[in-house]
Amino acid sequence: MASRFPSLSAKCGSDRRPFRTVFCIVLVMAVCAPLLAQQPTAPAAPQVLVAVKLRDPNFRILHIKFRAFYNKFENNVVPLTDYDLAASASDEIMNALSGDARARWRLATTDEKMYTESYFDEKTAQGNLPASIAADRLLLVDIGGFSLSTHSTAHRMFAVGALKMIDRPSGRILWKKGVVHKLEGYKGHTDEELLADNQKMLKELLNKLIEEFSVEIKKKVAENPI
Amino acid sequence: MRVIVGVMACLLLASLPCAAQGQGTLRVKSDITAVEVFLDGVSRGTTPVTIPQVPAGTHRLTLAKGGYKDHVQQVEIGAGTTAKLFIVMKKEEEPLPPLPVKYPGLHRHALSFCAGEITVTSEALEYRGKDGKDVFRIPYTKMHAVSRSIGASTGMFGGPLTTVDLMGLRIDAEGRSYTFWVSTEDPSEADYEMQARTKQLYELVNRLWNQALAERKASGKKS
């Protein structure tokens, strides 16, 4: 039967067939190679609901004066103006944890916090997350607060917290860790320097402390199973 | 043959990782949350925000929120790097209450308290005890710190820990420190009333002290 497309038939004649075959094989290989190179589908990473609680939203300064027979202490509290420490800490912790690919991290919403709150108290009954909340694990980040301890030459700005990983289906505590972090390289400032200009220096130092504290939390989480 | 080579070259290029050439990341945070961020005049969300794929070079960053002064600055973005910024926003000036303001107050001594009247003027905080013996004036320019505290305590271990609401106004000035509560000494006065008034006094004095510091800084004087 004569071809309806003589010109095309002439081009793809028997003399061009080997090239066409090679072309097709190369094309198929090029398309399939990236797909074959991919790892076999891994089981889905567990979803971890992260609940952050800040016990003290203010900044505490503990002045200590050592004497021969007694010590003098003063707990000063600086209410932070226009600085949402809890929101800032939550964001930075999530930013740090997002680098851990072992799980899918999700920050508890305001509504979800209503249910996660009871987990922070060990005496309260566990496992009362409603089924509508999607999570395989629950990471509780319990931050005590941000403080400065100061006496004569030693000045330590630090954050204290505790971590707890809970298996959601069983309510079992998988692990618990304490976290204490001291701001690196802090040499001390006068109260006036810290508080002047709408607490600018204090806020900048707190931001640095939160960043370092979040990295410390990430390290602690990385050391433990999820 | 040329067709095969061309197709293979195209496929090879397409399979290479899409390496972003000359781009960086910008992370912007601020003390208050939900401040709108503009990069080169284009809105990029609210703080805290991470802006990926920013072309390397100098950009104009603007932060804006109602009730606060706009913050404008230039940022340098390097290729393949993340620039981090933390901005402290400045509040727009609100009018001060008409001064002087008077409060019934308690002044803490080393071992006791005395009752009197606290007067906040534009230059200083003044106190006058009811018996007329305890009278002093603390100019804002002489204050070193304004905070909340119940005052110093002595002993081997740390002082008592209490909530900030129960704490008084603490002023560290040249030579000594002062602690005040705003209280009428009326037994029917609820605790929360005393706490609310003391907080109000703290906020007013803190604001006036910050103003004095800003004026001193502007005039270039040293403390």
Question: Briefly, what is this?
Answer:
With 226 residues, chain A is α/β, with parallel strands linked by helices. Chain A has five helices and seven strands.
Written account of the structure:
The complex is a heterodimer of chains A (226) and B (223). Chain A has 226 residues and is α/β, with parallel strands linked by helices. Chain A has two domains: 6-37; 47-222, Rossmann fold (3-Layer(aba) Sandwich). In chain A, strands 1, 2, 3, 4, 5, 6 and 7 form a seven-stranded mixed beta sheet that branches. Chain A is built from five helices and seven strands, in the order ααβββαβαβββα. By secondary structure, chain B is of the alpha+beta class. Chain B folds into two domains: 21-87, Immunoglobulins (Immunoglobulin-like, Sandwich); 101-219, Pleckstrin-homology domain (PH domain)/Phosphotyrosine-binding domain (PTB) (PH-domain like, Roll), CATH 2.30.29. Chain B is 19% helix and 42% strand. Chain B contains two helices and 15 strands. Chain B has helices spanning 2-15, 191-219, and strands at 23-30, 36-39, 42-46, 49-55, 57-64, 71-77, 82-87, 101-108, 113-120, 124-129, 135-139, 143-149, 153-155, 168-173, 177-182. In chain B, β8 (101-108) and β9 (113-120) form a beta hairpin. The longest helix of chain B is centred in the last third of the chain and has 29 residues, at 191-219. Mean pLDDT of chain B is 86; it is low at 12-20. Classes of the chains: A alpha/beta (226), B alpha+beta (223). The interface between A and B is large, with 45 and 49 residues. β3 (71-78) of chain A pairs antiparallel with β13 of chain B, so a sheet runs across the interface.
Strand content of chain A: 25-35%
Assigned CATH class of the largest domain in chain A:
Alpha Beta
> What's the count of strands of chain A?
7
The topology string of helices and strands of chain B comes to HEEEEEEEEEEEEEEEH
Q: Give the termini distance of chain B in whole angstroms.
A: 83 Å
List the helices and strands of chain A in order.
HHEEEHEHEEEH
CATH architecture of the largest domain in chain A: 3-Layer(aba) Sandwich
